[in-house]
Amino acid sequence: MALKQLSVFLENREGRLEDLFQVFGENSIQIHSFSLAESSEYGILRLIVSNPEKAKDALKAVDFSASLTDVVAVRLPGGFDSLKSVTDAVTSNYNIEYMYVLSTEPGQQAIVFKIKDVAEVEKSLEEKGFELIN
Amino acid sequence: MEIWNEAKECMSRDEMTALQSARLRKTVSNVYHNVKFYRRKMQEMGIEPGDIRGIEDIEKLPFTTKDDLRDNYPFGLFAVPKTEIVRIHASSGTTGKPTVVGYTRKDIDTWCECVARSLTMAGLGKDDIIQVAYGYGLFTGGLGAHYGVEHLGATVVPMSTGSTKKLINMMIDFEVTGLMCTPSYLMHIAEVMEEMGVLDQIKLKATINGAEPWTEAMRNQIEEKLHVKAFDIYGLSELMGPGVANDCAFHKGMHIYEDYFYPEIIDPNTKEHLEDNVTGELILTNLNKEGMPLLRYRTRDLTSITHETCECGRTNARLSRFKGRSDDMLIIRGVNVFPSQIETALLSLDETTPNYQIIVDREGALDTLMVKVEVDEKFFSDEIRELEKLEKKISYAIQQMIGLATKVKLVEPKSIERSVGKAKRVIDNRKFD
């Protein structure tokens, strides 16, 4: 079961992030992690939130372009030093499109990444003993 | 001050009216008998060529629009057999279909005569070396100006559009004295000259600029910077090309070559004739064209006319500086662009919504075109790479349609300003006053 990431298109305009966080506040959406990808004109905010479906609908109601994307979230048993074991496990078949940190809590370190064929990658990670987060 | 064809350019009003009447009768008879489109239109209106006795009867004739040209694509409005046509020009049309015009040998001669009159008005003659920096090709600017310069007997340097530095270097090396190009390109050339530090090395006397609207302020700037006289030329491919009208050294409006083009000014809504010095839409009729004569062509250009004799001695009526368009056509870097073309390009892609906005601006001297497109969830990707690919795809589709490089900017849904629910499609930040 893949994790649902909320992706939001943001123009580089003053106040847009503020508007977005306001919508989250009004709808009691908690942010677990996020990453902002930017070009010169716009950005894409990628978030892991408490209730992605609800967050998406709330954002669309106020004319944000938002969508849900399947991503893989995996715990790093040996902290960030064990990143290589994850990449070894997945990159022989596919490229990772992007990746960011989900948790830095000691012993609970985890990352999120986007890759093609999420189901197959998750299966292969599980077979190698990794713990997935849904 | 030289006048190329004093007999025609300084004709008395009575003589001009007689000449225009004779030529109109001949043109009407020609199109009635040789162009199905006009015959049908005139029959529908219950008019025969015999009803047109003189130029005063022109109001009885049907109008011609750009749509009529498109509907008769490609050769439907030609009044002579194809064997008589020696050249074709074309400009982009509203739905991607070009507007085609055909010229006989005599039409080309007429065009050369018109351009020679313009060049003479600008004080240029057979001793001059003139660079033509309009695009050569289907666009009438390049070739039209080129053959006019040759007809004048001056030396033509066919630069077309391309490297500005090369143009400037040749201008210095050849001691060029005349330049024909769009006003915005001339501004750009002046800026590059300034950067190169060669402003004091040029021998330029006069520039003739047209194909897009410009202002007195731009003229003053050009004249001051380059120490030249800058002249305004008007033309449109449907009627001929550059050389329908031109201003003389007194810069009090553009003299229209009335023996070839009959001007009327109408109220675009009521279609009634307007008096001299009242602004309305310019209507032009070809009086002496063989290949594709047009009756009462609606130019959509807004201007006014005066029949007062000019200080230069010419009696040819004068058109005031153009005040805009009666439709939504934009002229960007000399290219005619309709918002509907951009919409057609967007709709041809599956990914886009028709929510767009066209922003025209002038950066330094060059017009820029940007199209904002709202990002719809249908094609929203969470990868920058995919969005950039989409921008390129949209930009390419628009460029294919209008022939101009276009910057595409993706924006958030509903962020394009709307008035009464309808998005404002065009924002033109250029100043023409």
Give the largest interface pair and sizes: A-B, 24 and 16 residues
Named CATH architecture of the largest domain in chain A: 2-Layer Sandwich
Q: Report the total helices of chain A.
A: 4
The CATH topology annotation of the largest domain in chain A reads as VC0802-like
- Proportion in helices of chain B: 25-40%
Beta strand % of chain A:
35-45%
Give the DSSP E fraction of chain B (strand runs of 2 or more residues).
25-35%
Mean pLDDT of chain B: 91
Mean pLDDT value of chain A: 91
Return residue spans of chain B where pLDDT drops below 50 for at least 5 consecutive residues. none
Can you tell me the CATH superfamily of the largest domain in chain B?
Answer: ANL, N-terminal domain
The CATH superfamily of the largest domain in chain A bears the name: VC0802-like
Number of domains of chain A: 2
Assembly form of the protein = heterodimer
The largest beta-sheet of chain B arranges its strands as: 4-3-5-6-7-8-9-14-13
> Termini of chain A, distance in Å?
6 Å
Shape of chain B: globular
Shape of chain A: elongated
Characterise the protein shown here.
The complex is a heterodimer of chains A (134) and B (433). Chain A is of the alpha+beta class and 134 residues long. Chain A is built from four helices and six strands, in the order βαββαβαββα. In chain A, β2 (31-38) and β3 form a beta hairpin. The longest helix of chain B has 22 residues, at 13-34. Chain B folds into two domains: 6-327, ANL, N-terminal domain (Rossmann fold), CATH 3.40.50; 332-428, ANL, C-terminal domain (GMP Synthetase, Chain A, domain 3, 2-Layer Sandwich). Chain B is globular. With 433 residues, chain B is α/β, with parallel strands linked by helices. In chain B, the strands form six sheets. Chain B has a nine-stranded mixed sheet. Classes of the chains: A alpha+beta (134), B alpha/beta (433).
